[in-house]
Amino acid sequence: xxxxxxxxxxxxxxxxxxxxxxxxxxxxxxxxxxxxxxxxxxxxxxxxxxxxxxxxxxxxxxxxxxxxxxxxxxxxxxxxxxxxxxxxxxxxxxxxxxxxxxxxxxxxxxxxxxxxxxxxxxxxxxxxxxxxxxxxxxxxxxxxxxxxxxxxxxxxxxxxxxxxxxxxxxxxxxxxxxxxxxxxxxxxxxxxxxxxxxxxxxxxxxxxxxxxxxxxxxxxxxxxxxxxxxxxxxxxxxxxxxxxxxxxxxxxxxxxxxxxxxxxxxxxxxxxxxxxxxxxxxxxxxxxxxxxxxxxxxxxxxxxxxxxxxxxxxxxxxxxxxxxxxxxxxxxxxxxxxxxxxxxxxxxxxxxxxxxxxxxxxxxxxxxxxxxxxxxxxxxxxxxxxxxxxxxxxxxxxxxxxxxxxxxxxxxxxxxxxxxxxxxxxxxxxxxxxxxxxxxxxxxxxxxxxxxxxxxxxxxxxxxxxxxxxxxxxxxxxxxxxxxxxxxxxxxxxxxxxxxxxxxxxxxxxxxxxxxxxxxxxxxxxxxxxxxxxxxxxxxxxxxxxxxxxxxxxxxxxxxxxx
Length: 563
Prior knowledge:
- GO terms for molecular function: ATP binding; protein kinase activity.
- This is Casein kinase I.
- It comes from Leptocylindrus danicus.
- Pfam families: FHA, Pkinase.
- The chain has 3 domains: about 1-80 and about 95-150, 2-Layer Sandwich (Phosphorylase Kinase, domain 1), CATH 3.30.200.20; about 155-230 and about 250-360, Transferase(Phosphotransferase) domain 1 (Transferase(Phosphotransferase), domain 1, Orthogonal Bundle); about 445-560, Tumour Suppressor Smad4 (Sandwich), CATH 2.60.200.
- The chain has helices at about 1-15, 15-25, 95-110, 155-165, 170-185, 210-215, 255, 265-280, 295-305, 315, 320-335, 345-355, 360-380, 390-440, and strands spanning about 40-50, 50-60, 65-80, 135-140, 140-150, 150-155, 190, 200, 215-220, 225, 230, 235, 445-455, 460-465, 470-475, 480-485, 490-495, 505-510, 520-525, 530-535, 535-540, 545, 550-555, 555-560.
- By secondary structure, the protein is an alpha+beta fold.
- The chain has a 6-stranded antiparallel sheet with strand order 14-13-24-23-20-21, with no helix packed on it. A 6-stranded mixed sheet has the order 16-17-15-18-19-22, with no helix packed on it.
- The longest helix has about 50 residues, at about 390-440.
- The chain starts with a helix and ends with a strand.
């Protein structure tokens, strides 16, 4: 059973050569107008992947012509030509096309049996019989299944724009996606391949802004679904390990480390899907930091660095990151504490996700604040209705106004005094900096940066004390040397490394005033695309480095040595 699942996953994850070639022949149009029965046929191609293709469904009209059915689509995969086994009687290994056809049949059985009660509300529906299209069938050329037609996936522009209309829309959507996985887990099934393409929206008929996306989200593509219960022991199966199953960009860290999938991994993968949505809400071309990695191992390494660092680019690139990043870090932390066979606390996770927002609270808060200020200003300019002198209401209002005037005077005095104190502190700080520079100028310490790997391997950058105050490292700096009144800036060009940003990081040399041998650097990231790593750990704020430390920018790694 496990080897069969691995074979299926390996095929679906890596664009199977033979099948993909046959499906994409003539741009996938080789099956167009193929009849399903006397009233229905395969229509135009609207999508395809490694495991098959999706076409519109054409229905015969009263005039005996065919028109496109807007309610259903046809998902099909080619039927391989049957091959006889070897004369020795050994069981022949199935081809990729045969495994693909078996996957579609497995998916249809799930729709018809285990997932029957989820059709139409959690997953796509099937035709109802009678004069409707056939649910499933086979021809000499292909095997097919007819499903409810979806509008778009959850990362499409249409869905993202819908989420932007309501502050709570994304929270409701995420809770609904989690509820779909919960219902699947209640049936002792794992989805395994949780990714944005497998969450789609049905027809958006509801006019309610916040509920339109949540009420219509559906879980699709059950080709990799598997049972997590050991039927012989009537308990959760053991963690026997295995290869990476599903889409690497959205796989859990446990799967990258070689563990078998369980319920916790579906939930962690959902977190990456939600992270992708929040990044797209901020930037319609945004990507997960590890989506550009070239290997599954590199995906796992980068993902581990970002997910476990609350200040990484993964969280900071999210929409309304000041709020949503903390929520998502809490979500991933909760998922990471779930044991392999443990039943997750879905209610706790839903309470976390419902707090996500798709409208920046800071902007709405600023508007509310400005309205309050306008109200206060208008109330001062427009006097209230005058009351006769000596009445209790008039006396009360006069007392309140007098108190307010005293408070305003005191607060203005406090602001003046605090401004004076800040100015004095700034002057003292500037004097101390100048004194420190004069002390350090007595020594001539030197530091050396040796590139140990990357396109510039073997290059050396030496820096003596008092030569400059700061070094900017980048791929295309605008100038080689820049002087200002108070400091000198040098630029270190690493033009051969395309993965480095134009201005990637800054270095500042620091020397102890008591010993010239006590040399260190302070390194900081300048909003680069792939960050700065010190001793293979991603930094989120300026970090002190000492002789022997390794620094990685892009694919370039250099070693800090004393000069």
